[in-house]
Amino acid sequence: MYEGVDTAHKRQYVRYGIVAFVVLGALVGWAWYAHPMSDSHLSIFPTATTTPSSAISYEIVTSTADQERGLGGRANIPPDYAMLFVFPKDGTYGFWMKDMLATIDMIWLSDNGTVVHLEQNVAPSTYPHVFYPNTPARYVLEMRAGQAAARDLGIGSKISLPLPYGK
What we know:
Layout: H1 7-34, E1 40-43, E2 55-61, H2 64-69, E3 81-91, E4 104-109, E5 115-122, E6 137-144, H3 147-150
């Protein structure tokens, strides 16, 4: 307790503290929304060797709301960036191009990171078509169009990444 500070001043300090807490919370929330987990890294290993150019930054999305939004609204997707959709169990998860501004590659992965289905150069104009894998998958990786080919990815390719539910 502070001696010599009257009750009115104490209330004023409490109000300032509450306002500062709310403003700080809003800034942290905005930063989380605007830059979600973009400093995570994964490496794609289409062959037995890896090079610095194969490393990409990515964000993981697990909530339904984030998965529905996906890369929607982003006009430019860097070539070294991806979004990893994580599902709790294998399934034939469908993806569409709602609110998309850029053409992308969609890569469905098994629980151990094996490519089981691939859709390349999917344009925003394909909406409302929904793309489904031929085989159940646990993960979906979305990247800038052309990156699957540039990284020599195809059915059966292995992608090494930290798989939360993988074997």
